[in-house]
């Protein structure tokens, strides 16, 4: 697992120059590129780390010259888990004929909204037949129920959806057997690392546990 920000990206890149490239392709399976990582550095790292199954890509590259190359690199990965900003995720499907290597294998998707949005839209979810876990990081936004229902209906195998918003600051709220409201993580990198390690403290595990208890309470009542 490798998580990179402004202070350690240069060190990691220097390390890649002193070791065989195959080492990084074979051993880096979980990668987090935070928003402070430079676009050119992100492209170099993705070129080396081709065996990733769990990727958090939070680099703002949508309007940069290297955007197409980076999206092509992400497209080739055989991912099971992906965390990405909404407009970047949508841009992956700008060519309707594109079929990403991870379309059939992706089970966990975390979508981040950088802009104010009360009617969140996440198109192309029907391209992901194995998707079982979805989270929407809405921040200070409040989503309209109709938009959430549209998202749920496009995911045939979805087991549950986490919604992070400001109204969940007091704790986790289960509103449906597939919908959980949770507080926005105080540290998104640490939260990503927890899910990458499959910790019982991770949001995915906490949401699953909350839904299990919710279903049991509904059945007992």
Q: What do these coordinates show?
A:
This protein is 35% helix and 19% strand. The chain has eight helices and nine strands. The protein has a nine-stranded mixed beta sheet with strand order 1-2-3-4-5-6-7-9-8. The model has no long low-confidence stretch (mean pLDDT 91). Helix 1 runs parallel beside helix 3 (39-48). The longest helix has 18 residues, at 203-220.
Helicity, as a percent range:
25-40%
Q: Uncertain runs with pLDDT below 50, 5 residues or more?
A: none
Query: If you average the pLDDT, what whole number results?
Result: 91
Distance between the termini: 43 Å
Strand order of the largest sheet: 1-2-3-4-5-6-7-9-8
Counting copies of identical and different chains, the oligomeric state is single chain
Largest sheet: 9 strands, mixed
Structural class: alpha/beta
Which series of helices and strands comes N to C? EHHEHEHEHEEHEEEHH
> What is the 3D shape?
globular
Q: What are the SSEs and their pairings?
A:
Elements: E1 2-4, H1 9-16, H2 21-27, E2 30-33, H3 39-48, E3 54-57, H4 67-76, E4 81-85, H5 86-91, E5 108-112, E6 133-139, H6 145-153, E7 160-165, E8 173-176, E9 179-182, H7 188-196, H8 203-220
Parallel strand pairs: 1-2, 2-3, 3-4, 4-5, 5-6, 6-7, 7-9
Antiparallel strand pairs: 8-9
What would the keywords be for this entry?
221 residues, 9 strands
